[in-house]
Design a protein that fits this description.
89 residues; single chain; mainly beta; 0% helix
């Protein structure tokens, strides 16, 4: 099964981006189904989505992308970024 990593452009609701940096997107959206007031969040394998809805239909959508680095494996050498590595050479 193929994982969806991006929403197709024709399925993207109207939005107004306030912040668009690697790892963080903050935007207002308009969605007819958002007829509620409050805070809602959901997590996926690639991001955490937080919706803050102070006005019905116009949520502030904050997307925080997860680190996509490969999980640590015991049989692969690692580097901590400070010049130390394991196993020692």
């Amino acid at each position: 099964m193929e994982k969806i990593t991006e929403v197709p452009k024709d399925k993207t609701p109207p939005h107004w981006r306030l912040v668009d940096r690697p790892g963080l997107i903050v935007q207002f959206q308009w969605e007819w189904r958002d007829f509620w007031i409050g805070v809602f969040w959901r997590t996926t394998e690639i991001a955490v989505h937080i919706y803050i809805n102070l006005l019905p239909f116009i949520p502030l959508h904050i997307t925080i992308e997860r680190d996509q680095k490969k999980p640590f494996s015991d049989d692969e050498p690692w580097d901590d970024g400070h010049g130390d590595s394991w196993p020692p050479e």
